[in-house]
Every structure is written in C-alpha cells, then in structure tokens.
Design goal:
single chain; 205 residues; alpha/beta; DNA polymerase, domain 1; two-stranded antiparallel sheet; 5 helices
C-alpha cells in the first residue's frame, strides 16, 4: 500500500514538473512575440530621427551678401541664400523705380557673394562696373559698348576671343551698328549659349 502511494506521489510530481515546464516555454514564447512586435517601432523612431536630420540640412544652406544699386526703391546690401536669382534680390530691395531700364538687367541670373547689381535708368549713359566673383576674387568686367568697342575691348567680354571679336567688327562694317542684343546671333560663331554669357556685359548704343 505504501509502495502504491509512493508511486502516485512520484507521478503527481512528474505531472506538476511537466506543467511547470510547459508554462515556462509558453510564457517565453509570448515574450518573444511581444518583443518582435515592438521591434519595428524602434526602427521607425530611428527613421524619424534620420528624417529630422535630413530636414535640418537645407536650413544650413550658404548665405552671402549682394550690393544693389541704381534705379530701385531701396538700394543697399542684402543677405541672400544660395540658389536665389537677381529678381529675388530686386524684390528684397523694394522693386524697380518707375524709370528703371529693366531690359539692361539679367533677372534670371543666379546671385553669388560680393555681387553688385546695378539697375540703370532709361536713357542713362553708364559704364557701370559689374563685379563678378569667379573664384580668384579679382575679376572685373566692364559693360562694353559693342558698337564702338575696339578688338581688345571686345575680347574682355566673357566668351569672346580674338576670332569672335573680329567677326563682330566685320559684321558692323558690313551691316552697320547693332540695334539689339539678339542681333548678335547673326554674327558667325555666336550662338544662343554664347550670347547668354555675353549679355550681362554689353550695351547697345
């Protein structure tokens, strides 16, 4: 009888141990599932942090100073951001005055540090110097009166070498003075791209 009771106790202990083992593994597996479900949230937070860092970068874009003069409402030095155009700076300066010669200004040109934007008045005779910061900090290009310029003066215009300068002089000799900037496209060797480089540095008189 004692032996039978002993055997029953042994089996009861075995069953209890088995139940405890099963419960242990069930609880462990549930914790792993919960952890697995929570893990993506951690990754999402990291991604959000990365996105915030990317959004901050543009705020630190390059800024520089541009000097605006002439026929505008509020001449002065203005702070600009990288990528802004001449038209953006003109707006900061209050816009053009009533008699501003808007056709003498390249409004689509990108601004850069130490740039000088001069807006002449209609009918104004000026050889206003436009200072260009091209990297060496020393380059200055004067506005060239293309109808009265010499060979050497024409060669000062960006994109105009000895050959193009001679072609300009030959064209004037054969057809008379230019009446518009666009007419320069008729000169041998000058296309639209060349004319875009030349336009900010020439005047027609």
């Amino acid at each position: 009888m004692k032996k039978l009771i002993h055997n029953k106790l042994v089996w009861i202990c075995v069953v209890i141990v088995g139940i405890l083992v099963v419960n242990f593994y069930q609880i462990k597996s549930k914790n792993e599932v919960v952890f697995a479900k929570q893990s993506p949230k951690v990754e999402t937070v990291k991604k959000n942090d990365d996105q915030k860092k990317e959004e901050i970068v543009p705020v630190n874009s390059k800024v520089f100073m541009v000097d605006v003069k002439g026929a505008i409402q509020k001449p002065g030095v203005f702070q600009c951001k990288e990528g802004e155009r001449v038209i953006d700076v003109i707006r900061l300066a209050g816009g053009f005055k009533e008699k501003a010669d808007v056709n003498k200004v390249n409004l689509a040109e990108k601004t850069f540090d130490e740039m000088v934007i001069y807006v002449p008045f209609i009918g104004e005779e000026t050889d206003q110097t436009i200072i260009k910061n091209t990297g060496d900090g020393t380059n200055q290009n004067e506005m060239i009166d293309i109808n009265h310029a010499s060979q050497s003066e024409l060669e000062k215009i960006p994109g105009v070498g000895p050959s193009k300068a001679k072609n300009i002089l030959d064209y004037i000799d054969q057809n008379g003075p230019f009446t518009s900037v666009e007419q320069l496209e008729s000169v041998n060797g000058i296309g639209k791209k060349s004319l875009e480089k030349m336009t900010p540095f020439i005047v027609i008189r």
